[in-house]
Amino acid sequence: PLMPLQTGFKFESGDAKWEFPRDQLRLDTVLGEGEFGQVLKGYATHIAGLPGVTTVAVKMLKKGANSVEYMALLSEFQLLQEVSHPNVIKLLGACTLSSEAPLLIIEYARYGSLRSYLRLSRKIECAGVDFSDGVEPVNVKMMLTFAWQICKGMNYLTELKLVHRDLAARNVLLADGKICKISDFGLTRDVYEDDAYLKRSRDRVPVKWMAPESLADHVYTSKSDVWAFGVLCWELITLGASPYPGIAPQNLWSLLKTGYRMERPENCSEAVYSVVRTCWADEPNARPSFKYLAAEFEKLLGNNA
Ligand code: ACK
C-alpha cells in the first residue's frame, strides 16, 4: 500500500465555505459500494441554505483506502465546487475538518442511477404493477427528454473544459421530477460494482463506452465524451441493455475499425438513430458538439409532442 490515509494530504482551508458540522449530519443506509468508497443516504439539518432537514447522498472512502483514493475524493471535491448546472449533480457541503475520514455531501437523486431506473421501468411495464414511488414506464418522449437534459449538462461541462471520461447511464443520476444529473466526473473515480469495466492492471476501463482514439491512444476529449453519449443513447433506447452484446471487450477496437457499429434497435426511429450514429464517427472532429446535439433532441422532442 501507498501512504496511509490521514497523512500527507489535506483538504484546504479555502474549502471552509463548504464545511458542514458533522453533528448536523445523520447517516442512513448504503446506496452504493465500490472497492474504495461508498455512498450513503443521509439527512442534513440546515445545509446549503436549505431550511429543515434535507435528504442527501454522502460519499466517503472505506477503511483501507490509500492516498491515491484519498486524492481522487479530493479532486472530485474540488471539481464539484466549480460546477453549478441543473443537469449536473451538486455539492452541498463537506465534512473535512474532523479527525474522521472526509465526507462529501451531495444532492440526493431519489431514483438512483439512470441505468437502474431504466431497468426497473422495464419490470413495471411487464408486470403492470403500480407506479409507486413515481417509477413509470419510459416512453419515447421521456427518453428524448433524458437525452436532451444530458446534452445540456455535458455542454456545460464542455464549456468549462471538463472532460467526463466515463459518461454512461450508470453515471447519470435521476433526481426528483425525473431530472438527469451527470455525476462521477473527474480524473479518477471508484467503480461501483459494475462489470462494464475491464480490469487492466489497477485501473478499470469502460471499454464499450470508449471512442477508438481512447482505446488506442488513451486520448480523452469532449469528442470522446460525445462518442460515449451515443452509447448512452443506445442504453436509453434499449432500457438499460449492455452495449455490444456478445462481443468481447478485447475485440471491440478492431471491430470498430472495420466500421462496425451497433445497429438501430427495433423501437428506435430512423431520425433518432441517425443522430446517434453521428456520435460514432471514426474521426473525432466529425462528431457533433453537445450544443448541436441538445438542439437536435429539442427538435425531435417538438416532433414528438
Ligand atoms: O443505481 P443506484 O441505486 O444509484 O446505485 C448507484 C450507487 O449509489 C453507486 O453510485 C447510488 N448513488 C450515487 N450517488 C447518488 C446520489 N447522489 N443520490 C442517490 N443515489 C446515489 C447510485
Automatic annotation (TrEMBL):
Residues 25-301 form the Protein kinase domain. It comes from the Eukaryota. It is found in: Membrane. ATP binds at K59. Signal peptide: none annotated. This is Protein kinase domain-containing protein. It comes from Drosophila navojoa (Fruit fly). The lineage of its organism: Eukaryota, Metazoa, Ecdysozoa, Arthropoda, Hexapoda.
